[in-house]
Amino acid sequence: MVSVRIYRTRTCPYCQRAERLLKKRGAKKMQLIDVAANRKLWAVMKKETKRDTVPQIYIGDYHVGGFDDLAELDRSGKLKSLLFPS
C-alpha cells in the first residue's frame, strides 16, 4: 500500500470526510498536515497543488485533488487501485 498525504485543517468537514473514506478503503499510512495555523505549510500546499482549498490529497506521488475528486475516484472504482497497486 502507498502512503497518503492530506493537507487539511482540523475543522474542515471535507477533510474529515476524506480521512474517513480513505480509512474505510484501507489506507493505513496517512500523513495529516494541518495547514490552519502555519502559513509556511499553507504556502507549500499552494505551490505544490496550485490550489488554496483543503483538503488536498496525495496518494503516493499522485495529486488527487480535493474531497470531490477523491469521491469520484471511489465511485469509479479507481481509488483501490491507487491505494493498493499491483
From TrEMBL:
Matches recorded under Gene3D superfamilies: Glutaredoxin
GO CC, any one term: cytoplasm
UniProt cross-references to PROSITE patterns, sorted A to Z: GLUTAREDOXIN_1, GLUTAREDOXIN_2
Alphabetical UniProt keywords: Disulfide bond, Electron transport, Redox-active center, Transport
GO biological process, one term: cell redox homeostasis
GO MF term set: glutathione disulfide oxidoreductase activity
Segments forming domain Glutaredoxin: 4-64
InterPro entries: GLR_AS, Glutaredoxin, Glutaredoxin_subgr, GRX_bact, Thioredoxin-like_sf
Keyword flag Nucleus: no
PANTHER family: GLUTAREDOXIN 2, GLUTAREDOXIN-1-RELATED
NCBIfam families associated with the record: GRX_bact (TIGR02181)
The family this protein is said to belong to: Belongs to the glutaredoxin family.
Name recorded for this polypeptide: Glutaredoxin 3 (Grx3)
Native organism: hydrothermal vent metagenome
